[in-house]
Design brief:
heterodimer; A: alpha/beta; B: alpha/beta; ten-stranded mixed beta sheet; nine-stranded mixed beta sheet; 5 helices; 16% helix; binds adenosine-5'-diphosphate; binds magnesium ion
C-alpha cells in the first residue's frame, strides 16, 4: 500500500512576463488502488498540477509538499520521480524522431526497473499489450509519437502505463479527442492496469464521458488553481447535468 | 509543378540565417582553370563570407607541395588504379574550379590518383582511398574517380591525421553508371582541409555523394554537381559534428543544366562547445532548358550547447516554370527540452535521454548512407562526440584523446 500526498501546493509557471501563479493550494491524498477524478474547466490548472508532479522544469513549486510514502518528491529529478513509481500520461505526448518505440520502451523499462527485462519475456509482454490496445505491431519500429494520430498517441501512453507498472499514474485528458471505440480501448487498458497492479490513478478530465468506463472512487472539482468541491461518483453526475457554471460564478464573486 | 518552401520546422534562434540573397546569380559565378582569374579572397566575397580565411591562407598559395599526405588505395578487384600526370586528358572533365582554393589545387598538382571502374563492371567490394596527413606542409592532391558507362561501385575516401590539404576530387559518372562516393573527414585537431568535389553526371547515371565531417580545425568542402545529359540523378547526403573552435563548411552547388534530372540534398549537423561553427550553403540552379527538374534540399542543425553557431543558407534559382518539383527546408534548433522531459518522465536519466535524441536526429540519415562499414563507424564517432558533450553536462573532464 502506497500513498501519494499533496499538501497546500502552490505552483507558478514561467512566462515571458515573469512567473505566473497557477495553483493556489492544492490538497490531495491518493492511495494505491484508488481512482481519483479531477474535473474542471479549461485553464483551471489541471495540466499544471500534472506537470508539476512530474517535475517539468517550466513549473516552479513556490510552496507546499508532495510526498510518496513519506519521501519528498519535489526533491527528486524528473527521471527519479518516474523511477520512484510516478507516471504521467501526457495531454500532448512529444514526438521523438529517430527513436523507435521498441527501443524507447526497452530503455525506459530498463531505467525504471534498474535492470534490463528478460528479452524473450519482454518481447511477448510488449506484443500482448500492443494487441490489447489495438496498436499495430508495425508501431514498434516507428519513431516515438512521430506522425501518430491523436488517438494513437493516447494509446501509446496507456501502453507505457501497462508496461512500466507505476505505483501512481496521472492521466492528463487521456480521453480528449478520442472516438467512442478508442475511448473504450484506452479505458480497458487503464482498468487492466488497475486490476493487475493496484495502481493509484489520478484521472484528469474535462468531460464525464470516460467515467462511464473508469469508475472513480473520488471526484474533485478543480477551479482556478484549487479544489473547489469534493465528493463521490455522484458529484460527476451532477457536473454532467449542471456543468461548471455554478463554480465559475462562485469564483467570480469570491 | 510544385514549389515549396517548407519552414514549418524552422525554430530559428538567431543562429539561423536564411534566404540571404547572394551577390549575383550562381550562373554568373566565375569558374576557371586559370589562377589569374580567381584572386586570393579577402573574406568579404559571397563564397568566403562565413569562412575563417586567415586559417585557410596557406591553401590559397600558388606554391603547394605534394608531400603532406600519403595516399593509399585498396581497390575492389574490378577497379583500376593509376597515377596520371598533370595534363592528362582524363583530368578536368568534371567542370572548372569555382573558387580560389579549387583553382590553386588544380594548378599546383603534379600528378593525380585515378580510380576507374571499367564499363559495365560491378565492383564486388568497397574501394577505399586513405589519405593520411604526414606533415603540415601545405599540400595539393587530386583524385579522379571515373565510373564508366553502366558500371557500379562504392568508393570511400578517408582523411586522417594532420595536414594542410588543398584537394580536388573529380567524379565522372558516365551514362547509366551508379557511383557511391563517401568522403570522411576524420582529421586530427590541427588539420586544415579545403576540398573541391566536382561531379559530372551523364545520361541516366546516378551519383550518391556522402560527406561526413568530424575532425580538423577547418574543413571546407564544396561539392559541385552538374548534369550533362537527361535522366541523371544525384543524392547528396552530409553529416557533420562540430566541437569547440572547429569550423566546418559545406557549400553545395547542383547545376540543373539539362532537362529531367533529379537532385536530393540532405545535410544534418550537430554542434557543441564554444565557437563551434558550421556553415551549410545549398545552391541549386535550374536553368531555362532544364524542364522536368525535380529537386529538394534540406539542412537541419542541432545546437547542443551555448556558444556554437550554425549558418544555413538554402538558395534556389529557377529559370524555367516547367519543373516537376523544387523545394528546400532549413532549420536550426536548440536541444528540445520537451523531448528531454518526455524521455526523463519515463525514468531515463538525462545523459541517456540526450544520447537518444541526438542518435535519433541522425538515425535516418545514417540509414540513407547505405554503406555498412561507414554506418558502423559513424555511429561510433557520434558516440565519441557525445561523450565529450555529456562530460560538459555532468561537469566531468573529458578523457584526453
Ligand atoms: N507554459 C505556460 N505559459 C503560460 N501560461 C501557462 C502555461 N501553462 C499554463 N498556463 C496558464 O495556466 C493556466 C492553467 O493552464 P492548464 O494547467 O493547462 O489548465 P487546464 O489543464 O486545466 O486546462 C491557464 O491560464 C494557462 O494559460
Ligand atoms: Mg490541460
Amino acid at each position: 500500500m502506497s500513498t501519494l500526498e499533496i499538501r497546500d501546493l502552490h505552483v507558478s509557471v514561467e512566462t515571458k512576463e515573469g512567473a505566473k501563479p497557477i495553483l493556489r493550494g492544492v490538497d490531495l491524498t491518493i492511495k494505491s488502488g484508488e481512482t481519483h477524478a479531477i474535473m474542471g474547466p479549461n485553464g483551471s490548472g489541471k495540466s499544471t498540477l500534472a506537470s508539476a508532479l512530474a517535475g517539468h522544469p517550466k513549473y516552479e513549486v513556490t510552496s507546499g509538499t508532495v510526498t510518496l510514502d513519506g519521501e519528498d518528491v519535489l526533491e527528486m529529478s524528473v527521471d527519479e520521480r518516474a523511477r520512484a513509481g510516478l507516471f504521467l500520461a501526457m495531454q500532448y505526448p512529444v514526438e521523438v524522431p529517430g527513436v523507435s518505440v521498441a527501443n524507447f520502451l526497452r530503455t525506459a523499462k530498463t531505467a525504471i526497473d534498474g535492470e534490463a527485462p528478460a528479452l524473450r519475456h519482454w518481447g511477448k509482454e510488449v506484443k500482448g499489450a500492443m494487441e490489447n490496445l489495438r496498436i499495430d505491431s508495425s508501431f514498434a519500429e516507428r519513431s516515438v509519437n512521430e506522425g501518430f494520430s491523436g488517438g494513437e498517441k493516447k494509446r501509446h501512453e496507456i501502453l507505457q502505463m501497462e508496461l512500466f507498472k507505476p505505483r501512481f499514474a496521472i492521466l492528463d485528458e487521456t480521453d480528449s479527442g478520442l472516438d467512442v471505440d478508442a475511448l473504450r480501448v484506452v479505458s480497458e487498458g487503464v482498468n487492466r492496469a488497475k486490476e493487475t497492479t493496484d495502481v493509484g490513478v489520478l484521472l484528469i478530465t474535462h468531460y464525464t464521458r470516460i467515467l462511464r468506463y473508469i469508475k472513480p472512487d473520488f471526484v474533485h472539482v478543480f477551479v482556478d488553481g484549487k479544489i473547489a468541491e469534493e465528493g463521490g461518483p455522484e458529484l460527476a453526475e451532477r457536473l454532467e447535468d449542471e456543468g461548471y457554471d455554478r463554480f465559475l460564478t462562485a469564483g467570480a464573486t469570491a | 509543378m510544385t514549389l515549396t518552401t517548407d519552414h514549418t520546422r524552422a525554430t530559428a534562434d538567431g543562429t539561423h540565417s536564411h534566404g540571404v540573397v547572394p551577390a549575383g546569380s550562381r550562373a554568373e559565378r566565375k569558374t576557371s582553370f586559370d589562377l589569374a582569374d580567381i584572386p586570393v579572397p579577402s573574406g568579404r566575397e559571397e563564397e568566403w563570407r562565413f569562412s575563417p580565411v586567415a586559417r585557410i591562407q596557406p591553401l590559397f598559395s600558388e606554391q603547394l607541395g605534394s608531400d603532406g599526405v600519403a595516399v593509399t588505395v585498396e581497390a575492389a578487384p574490378e577497379v583500376k588504379v593509376e597515377t596520371l600526370a598533370r595534363g592528362d586528358e582524363r583530368l578536368g572533365r568534371a567542370g572548372k574550379p569555382g573558387d580560389r582554393t579549387a583553382v590553386a589545387a588544380w594548378n599546383a598538382v603534379a600528378e593525380a590518383t585515378a580510380v576507374t571502374i571499367p564499363a559495365e563492371a560491378v565492383a564486388s567490394d568497397v574501394t577505399s582511398v586513405r589519405i593520411d596527413g604526414v606533415s603540415k606542409d601545405a599540400t595539393a592532391a587530386h583524385l579522379v574517380v571515373t565510373a564508366e558507362r553502366h558500371s557500379e561501385a562504392v568508393v570511400v575516401i578517408d582523411h586522417r591525421g594532420e595536414a594542410l590539404l588543398n584537394q580536388t576530387v573529380e567524379l565522372v559518372v558516365e551514362d547509366g553508371a551508379h557511383l557511391t562516393v563517401v568522403s570522411v573527414q576524420d582529421w586530427a585537431d590541427g588539420a586544415v582541409h579545403a576540398s573541391s568535389h566536382r561531379a559530372a553526371i551523364g545520361r541516366d547515371a546516378k551519383l550518391k555523394h556522402v560527406v561526413v565531417t568530424f575532425g580538423g580545425d577547418v574543413v571546407r568542402v564544396t561539392p559541385d554537381a552538374t548534369f550533362t545529359a537527361e535522366g541523371g540523378e544525384v543524392e547528396m547526403v552530409g553529416l557533420y559534428f562540430a566541437d569547440a573552435d572547429q569550423h566546418q563548411e559545406h557549400r553545395l552547388f547542383v547545376d540543373h543544366a539539362v532537362p529531367r534530372c533529379k537532385s536530393r540534398v540532405t545535410y544534418k549537423g550537430a554542434l557543441q562547445g564554444a565557437s563551434a561553427h558550421t556553415v551549410w550553403v545549398g545552391d541549386v540552379l535550374i536553368q531555362a532548358e532544364a524542364e522536368g527538374t525535380d529537386t529538394y534540399e534540406l539542412n537541419r542543425n542541432l545546437v547542443l550547447t551555448d556558444g556554437a553557431r550554425a549558418d544555413s543558407v538554402p538558395n534556389l534559382e529557377i529559370e524555367t516554370g516547367e519543373i516537376d518539383g523544387a523545394g528546400h527546408a532549413s532549420a536550426t534548433g536548440r536541444f528540445d527540452d520537451e523531448q528531454l522531459f518526455y524521455l526523463m518522465a519515463r525514468g531515463i536519466p538525462e545523459i541517456d535521454a540526450r544520447r537518444l535524441v541526438v542518435r535519433g536526429f541522425f538515425a535516418e540519415l545514417i540509414q540513407d548512407i547505405g554503406v555498412a562499414s561507414v554506418q558502423d563507424r559513424l555511429l561510433a564517432s557520434i558516440e565519441a562526440e557525445l561523450e565529450k558533450s555529456m562530460s560538459v553536462i555532468t561537469g566531468v573532464a573529458p578523457d584526453a584523446e
